[in-house]
Specification:
494 residues; alpha+beta; 8-stranded mixed β-sheet; 14% strand; globular
């Protein structure tokens, strides 16, 4: 059997929630009728590499797309399940927080917290199983639309029309947060400098900051941790972002921009007599992009509740939080119910590295160091045949030139300066400050429904996704020219 070509991404993550996420392949097969045969998660230094067989991704994506086109009601069912799980996760998180406030000194309280923990993880896995299909569907629809647009509009202009026709017609959560934040920033900078303190703000503005923090705080969460967002921290961030310069006006609202994109799409479809089958696939891609954005919101909210649970467990166990983050969910549950905890030597080994391998829906934890290193080398191998030219899929058109800023994790996002070309394995909402400063984006992973693709189209900056091994092939700081009209990027100099 030949070695798979791996489709992969890198992000910050804790072993505890990712072990739960890895169960979604089985659920995915049960609810959508197709399953990825192999998925490999390699964990080292609070960072994950997730890899799929690329042929598997296209096979599963084609099966999902076919089902949605034959049975449009299935997408509506998926939305209903995501909404149901969203409500259940919020209720479980509230119960866990209430238990924490009351105290967990007795076995009954700990048993209740264990039950909440188990139900929250079951809902978390189910959420991924129902809504993780967006990425493989996006890859298949993207390739299909490339061929259809090239045939209808011509090889040269096809990518341009495709970029316009696939612009999101919904207001993403990241876009809504950026717009609301700019309005808050304008109100804050209209005040005298000495009044820009939380205890001196007008009452209405202080309440608006608190509402913003509560509504959009999840965007700072990731798969490793969920730092709290408060009115005070938001005010500090707004003042730091401005760097002494009055921020520009907020501009049109995200809802207005989404409506404009929908009108533009309708005009283009009618003016160019785009075939009905192509239009159906464009609409499906838009629906799945919207589902992907909503799924990420619910996932990140759930990560906030899981992170809070892990902090409670760490306090009860008297263990550093970093160690508890590599406990498996059943180990955390056993500790809450009976006080049993995994051995110190086993946790120390996991902190050095572990892998989660799922084959045909069956999940296995790999803890042997030699085996973990073999999996890591397999999924991060760089083919020797790669040349110097970077090619990818156009997610947002345009041309930009700037210094490359290679990010291996969101923790490096502060290194991005205005005008840089952001280069990453993939992006998540915690990359948003860097994305707002970037002139262009290149990612190794993702399709037209990926976070980088959606945000780049909303920000109006060039973006190529699926650029093979870009984080290894581009040196930090080199001058990079991104031509997202032609789907290429070229290193122009040091």
């Amino acid at each position: 059997m030949t070695e798979p070509r791996w489709f992969k991404g890198v992000w910050d993550g804790a072993l505890h929630p990712c072990y739960t996420i890895a169960d979604y392949n089985r659920i995915e097969g049960e609810v959508h009728g197709a399953v990825r045969r192999i998925a490999v998660w390699v964990f080292e230094d609070e960072r994950f590499v997730l890899a799929y067989d690329q042929r598997d991704m296209y096979r599963v994506g084609a099966a999902f797309v076919d089902r949605f086109l034959r049975d449009p009601a299935h997408l509506a069912r998926t939305w209903r399940v995501v909404r149901r799980l969203e409500g259940g996760i919020a209720r479980l998180g509230a119960v866990a927080a209430d238990l924490g406030r009351r105290g967990l000194s007795g076995p009954a309280a700990r048993a209740r917290l264990a039950a909440v923990h188990d139900r929250l993880h079951a809902a978390f896995a189910e959420l991924f199983g129902w809504a993780s299909l967006c990425e493989p569907c996006g890859l298949v629809l993207q390739r299909d639309l490339e061929e259809r647009c090239a045939a209808h509009f011509g090889r040269e202009t096809g990518p341009v029309y495709q970029a316009y026709l696939t612009a999101p017609t919904f207001a993403s959560w990241a876009r809504r947060e950026a717009f609301a934040r700019r309005r808050l920033a304008a109100a804050i900078h209209a005040l005298p400098r000495q009044a820009r303190r939380l205890d001196r703000l007008p009452a209405g503005l202080a309440r608006a900051l608190a509402r913003h923090a509560a509504r959009f705080g999840f965007l700072r969460h990731n798969y490793l941790e969920a730092p709290p967002t408060t009115a005070a921290s938001l005010l500090r961030a707004i003042l730091a972002d401005a760097q002494g310069v009055t921020p520009p006006p907020a501009g049109p609202s995200p809802v207005a921009l989404a409506r404009r994109a929908a009108r533009n799409r309708a005009r283009l479809l009618a003016a160019h007599r785009v075939p009905a089958e192509t239009a159906r696939r464009i609409a499906l891609l838009d629906d799945l992009s919207h589902l992907q954005d909503e799924r990420k919101r619910v996932v990140l909210v759930a990560m906030g509740h899981i992170d809070a649970l892990l902090r409670q467990i760490a306090r009860l166990a008297g263990e550093p939080l970093a160690r508890v983050r590599v406990w498996l969910p059943d180990e955390a549950s056993a500790f809450l119910r009976s006080g049993l905890r995994p051995s110190a030597s086993r946790i120390a080994a996991r902190l050095g590295g572990a892998a989660i391998v799922t084959r045909d829906g069956v999940r296995r934890l790999v803890e042997d160091r030699a085996a973990v290193l073999r999996w890591r080398d397999r999924v991060t191998h760089v083919p020797a045949s790669l040349d110097g030219r970077l090619e990818g899929t156009v997610a947002s058109r345009g041309v930009a030139v700037g210094p490359a800023r290679v990010l291996l994790t969101a923790r490096d996002a502060g290194r991005v300066r205005r005008g840089d070309v952001l280069v990453a394995g993939n992006t998540t909402p915690d990359y948003m400050p860097a994305l707002r400063r970037a002139a262009a984006v290149l990612t190794e992973k993702g399709g037209m429904t990926s976070h980088a693709a959606l945000i780049a189209r909303e920000l109006g900056i060039p973006c190529l996704v699926g650029v093979a091994q870009v984080t290894r092939r581009v040196r930090d700081g080199v001058r990079l020219r991104v031509d997202a009209d032609r789907g290429i990027a070229v290193v122009e100099g040091p």
